[in-house]
Amino acid sequence: MNKKILSWCLFDFANSGYSAVIAAVIFPVYYANVIVGNQSGEGDLWWGRAIALSMAIVAVSSPFLGGIADYAKARKRLLIVYTLLCMSAVACLYFLRKGMVIEGFILIVLANIGLEGGIVFYNSFLPEIAETTHHGRVSAWGFGIGYLGSILSLLLAFFLFSRGSINVIWPMVALFFGIFSLPAFLFLPADSKTGIRAFSAAIDGFKHTGNTFRTIWANKEQRKFLIAYLIYEDGVNTVIVFSSIFAATTLQFTSAELIGMYLIVQTTALIGAFIMAKPTDYWGPKKVVMLSLILWFIITCSVFSVHEKTPFMVIASMAGFGLGTVQAATRAFYTQFIPEGQESEYFGVFTLVGKSSAIIGPLVFGYASSIFKSQRPAVLFVALFFLAGLIILQTVKGGRPNANTLLL
Questions:
Q1: Residue 175's CB: how many other CB atoms inside 10 A?
Q2: What's the pLDDT score for residue 408?
Q3: Euclidean distance between CA atoms 14 and 90, whole angstroms
């Protein structure tokens, strides 16, 4: 593993602290149950709104971001700016107290924009730092090392939580993100000077990305892939956003039990990402994504009828195995459509679709939970996302093996 690939993977390690602690496990429950109050689903509703708004902003801005990255050659600079935005917003969560619903809403929107916006540029480095035959495994290595970051950050969070220092967890996550992002800032390919102003690049890039989107949309196979991705990624994002709130609200998990469960999930996700790294290249990412979606459909249907903590933890560990696999294989699948020199542009479109998918699911879950006064009916809506995505994806021609030799 060379220096560029290692530093790229370490950025996933760095941002996984945010993904695990802020987006998935501790802060969603803290915000929904403590800051807002979730007796009648109000906490679910506010959390769903925050995630949906932040994802909508990232989705709308991603074509501009891709244009700036490709035309002004400012990819690394923008990665740094968005990372600093996320770190600053997360550190400010320290000042939140019960009843500060709007303040928490604003901070999580800013933090999520910083994290998800930066990933546009992070993803676009993949085709440049890795050979085509290794896209699948390098993508999986990034997610796998990221899960190590999730495990370490959760252990640190548990240490602070057990000592009653819950508000200190948030600046710890910000510091964790900053420290382990440094190798990416230092060793990923540098921006080149073009003399093109960012605003001009954004406008030109937006126009060109519009043309790129039309080109992609005119291609039947790419169009079907993006539609499938839009649907099943909605399910993935919704599970990530609401899994801990479901466990805490419906199954009465304590904070310590939530952290323990998520540590198990991250461990199985780590195992899954590394086990499926080579198969993604040798079998082809399409086959791997489809297997993962079948697993996710079975899992979400099973959650609907679960009433005890132990069966839920078993199901959650199975979900973890498929989590990194579906995300890494999808990213590797998409790289097969990208012409050389248009990485940021294409990943801008990819992000536009992916983040648009994170708007509908959280809103549907939040409103369903609020209307039915129960989270269980909302779970079935999520299962439908995986089924529909699977049906469409199986019609896509592509996702071929990246390697020419048989898997031994």
A1: 15
A2: 41
A3: 14
Token pair of 389 as six digits: 């995505």
Give ∠ CA 194-195-196 in degrees, rounded to 5: 90
Higher pLDDT, 312 or 66: 312
CB 366 within 8 A of CB 45: yes
Instruction: Tell me the pLDDT band of 405, cut-offs 50, 70 and 90.
Output: very low
How far apart are alpha carbons 78 and 109 in whole angstroms?
18
Q: Which of 115 and 269 is assigned the larger pLDDT? A: 115
Yes or no: say if 110 and 243 are a contact pair by the CB < 8 Å rule: no
Measure the CA–CA gap between 303 and 315, rounded to whole angstroms: 7
Q: What is the dihedral of CA 128, 130, 136, 138, to 10 degrees?
A: -110
* C-alpha to C-alpha distance for 252 and 246, rounded to whole angstroms: 9
**pLDDT for residue 202 is more than 70:** no
Q: How many whole angstroms separate alpha carbon 317 and alpha carbon 334?
A: 27
pLDDT at residue 102 in the model: 96
Cα–Cα distance between 234 and 358 in angstroms, integer? Answer: 5
b/e 13-51 (16+ beta carbons within 10 angstroms → b)? bbbbbbbbbbbbbbbbbbbbbbbbebeebbbbbbbbbbb
Supply the DSSP symbol for 230.
H
Q: Which DSSP letter does residue 341 get?
A: T
DSSP tag of 133 = G
Task: Let me know: does 50 contact 23? Beta carbons within 8 Å.
Answer: no
Q: Would you say 298 and 246 are in contact if contact means Cβ atoms under 8 Å apart? A: no
Count Cβ atoms below 10 Å from residue 365 Cβ, excluding itself: 27
**Confidence category of residue 370, pLDDT binned at 50, 70, 90:** confident
In contact, 28 and 245? CB cutoff 8 Å: yes
| Segment 303-312, tens digit of pLDDT | 888 889 999 9
Q: Are 50 and 35 in contact (CB under 8 A)?
A: no
Q: Which domains does the chain have, with CATH numbers?
A: 3-187+195-393 (1.20.1250.20)
Identity of residue 114: G
Angle, helix 255-275 to helix 220-249, in steps of 10 degrees: 150
* Rounded distance between C-alpha atoms, residue 48 and residue 61, angstroms: 20
